[in-house]
Amino acid sequence: MEKETLLNLYRKMLMVRFIEKTHERLLMEGKIQLMSHFGTGQEAVAIGVTGPLRKEDILFGTHRGVGEYIGKGMSAADIWHEYMGKRTGLSKGKGTLHLTDKNLNIPFVVSSLGSDFSISVGAALASKMKKTDQVTMDFFGEGTCNQADFHPAINMAAVWKLPIVFAVCTNHFCEMSYYTEYYPTEDVAIRAKGYAVPFEIVDGNDIEAAYDATERAVNHARSGKGPYLVEYKTFRMSLHFSGDPGGYVKQEDFDYWAQRDPIDLCQKKLFERKILSPEEDKKLRAEVQAEVDAAVESALKGPDPTPEDFISDIYEQTGVL
Amino acid sequence: MGRTISYLQALNEAMAEEMRRDPAVFILGEDVRMGAFGQTSGLVNEFGAERLVNTPIAENAITGVAMGAAMFGLRPVLELMFCDFAMLAMDELCNQLGQWRYVSGGQYSIPVTIRTATGGGFRMGYGHSQCLESQIFQAPGLILVEPSTPYDAKGLLKSAIRSNDPVLFFEHKKLILGGVMGEVPEEEYTIPFGEAVIRKEGKDATVAALGFMVYEALTAAAELAKEGIDIEVIDLRTIVPLDKNTIFKSVEKTGRLVTVEEGRIRGGIGAELAALAVSEYFDLLDAPVQRVAAPMVPIGGSAVLEDMYMPNKNSVIAAVKKTL
């Protein structure tokens, strides 16, 4: 991988981790109320899934953390203004966790997991009918993959040969249970077989492996060969959501995966390949944290939504019907 | 230039004209190339299979597909064959479709039209015969339309397809299969949402009816006229937005309100109209509001049971008399 590319992916992973850790701290300090579902330990998946996407490609992401949104091009400021419910947010504070950025082709983050399987297929159908060369990336977790709509969605994508990639992040947990409790198989990806969709399984903690697999999948979809599915294996080091009491994660699993932290692994590569020195790394981290802190500060000062905002955007014309 | 065409043909013409006018319009649904009841029949010959997309049987998922396509530049017209089956799509209809514009801060609009067949009378049993408009009535961000004549069907469907808001379009099976005919001009026209029509003027009581029930109300009006009772019949045409003003003006004149729908009574459209009357112009009412609607009973397969279930002209006559 090109030096610049790897360094850029590393910076993005740091941004994701720092935004989420800052969020956690602000919650604990009582400065914000917005609960969240953090994705600590799976940053390489989110950044690897979005790294090879073009700006015009469409991303349907997950509720877990901010990884894929940073990966697709949102800034810390974009996220914080919206997270804090300010009218300066991307969705004027109406979405908060449901990040949307039409300019980046990020349509929405759903609440009811899996509602977007078919919506992403519709987006890919539109690209095909309009003969654009956009790819739709539908990124979700193995927990969501138990929703019924996964099946008709991937089925239609396969039947209609749509330019879409299904990216499954297998982080070992479906909310507060090990995924093995809900899966008869170790791998999720083999479900693609039933729909004649090519698939691969990749180490989700290795940013290069994750990125390369995504690139193969995206190229396949863009070339008109139809959908592709990638399963990224990782481990969620944070709990399901900010109020989760925990107690269900086996210590030996946690210890094993702590040794395989995706940011540490990437840092090691950068040091070994002399792309980054420890001093430069320190400087980079301070710079990223400063960007996050500045975004938080500016968002805290942002204006609140107005009564006019309350009744606009329900229909095309302002007002309640 | 007037000519007489069927309700079915009116729907078909509206879709054909809009597909000719705008290449972004396409149709999808189960067997739409053939057309389950005939609404979309023949369109494939002119527009090709690419713009008439047959889908698998997966109502929630195909509703999501329509939504996604609408967000990325197309104008899908989705057919959910029976409104009973639309209940399989409640997540997309009620959680997503009408809310993403708002929650995205207006970044996305979702120009989807969803057509679905309602109503009983064909002995199709419990799961192919219901009127379930009120199940969707509570979801925000949607437009709900239910025309009763070929003229309205064509004009309102064209407006629905051109609308940048998601529209649910209810077609009663007695109107599409029953060969209801009506005058429809050759010239292009559309009908705005939120305008009810007075089908018959009268002074003794206001009867606000929805969809096919407009005909039952008009039959009731003719029979009541023989007894010297002169009712006003309003055809609501759109449920959201609701033409509150036309109903208000009528009640101002008559002092009495009867609501008529084929859906079930609890939490129905009539309940909303009654609540509006009581909270907004109680002082105009000379009698309690009466609701004509189906009972809280499943629809039996037997013709005898279905007939017991179905509101009709007799229920309208009885309700009107209660207000006098």
One letter per element, helices H and strands E, the order of chain B comes to: EHEHEHEHHHEHEHEHEEEHEEHEHEHH
**Largest Cβ-defined interface:** A-B, 45 and 46 residues
CATH class division of chain A: Alpha Beta
Strand content of chain B: 15-25%
Indicate the mean pLDDT of chain B.
97
What Rg of chain A, in angstroms, do the CA atoms define? 19 Å
What oligomeric assembly is this protein in? heterodimer
CATH class of the largest domain in chain B: Alpha Beta
CATH architecture of the largest domain in chain B: 3-Layer(aba) Sandwich
As for the CATH topology of chain A, it is: Rossmann fold
Radius of gyration of chain B: 19 Å
Number of strands of chain A: 7
Specify the overall morphology of chain A: globular
**Strand arrangement, major sheet of chain A:** 1-2-3-7-6
Helix/sheet category of chain A: alpha/beta
Largest beta sheet: strand ordering of chain B:
3-2-4-5-7-6-12
* Distance, first to last CA of chain A: 54 Å
Describe it.
Chain A has 321 residues and is an alpha/beta fold. Chain A has a single domain, classed as Rossmann fold (3-Layer(aba) Sandwich). Chain A has helices at residues 3-28, 43-50, 67-72, 76-83, 116-129, 150-159, 207-222, 251-258, 262-272, 278-300, 307-310, and strands at 58-60, 136-141, 164-170, 173-174, 177-178, 199-203, 228-233. A 5-stranded parallel β-sheet of chain A has the order 1-2-3-7-6, with helices on both faces. Chain A has a two-stranded antiparallel sheet with strand order 4-5. In chain A, helix 1 (3-28) packs across helix 2, helix 1 runs antiparallel to helix 9 (262-272) and helix 1 (3-28) crosses helix 10 (278-300). The mean pLDDT of chain A is 97. In chain B, the strands form 3 sheets. Chain B has a 7-stranded mixed β-sheet with strand order 3-2-4-5-7-6-12, sandwiched between helices. A 5-stranded mixed β-sheet of chain B has the order 9-11-10-13-14, sandwiched between helices. The termini of chain B are far apart. Chain B is built from 14 helices and 14 strands. In chain B, helix 1 (7-21) packs parallel to helix 8 (150-162), helix 3 packs parallel to helix 5 (90-97) and helix 10 (213-226) packs across helix 14. Chain B folds into 2 domains: 2-185, 3-Layer(aba) Sandwich (Rossmann fold); 197-323, Rossmann fold (3-Layer(aba) Sandwich), CATH 3.40.50.920. Chains A and B meet through helix 5 and helix 6 of A and helix 3, helix 5 and helix 6 of B.
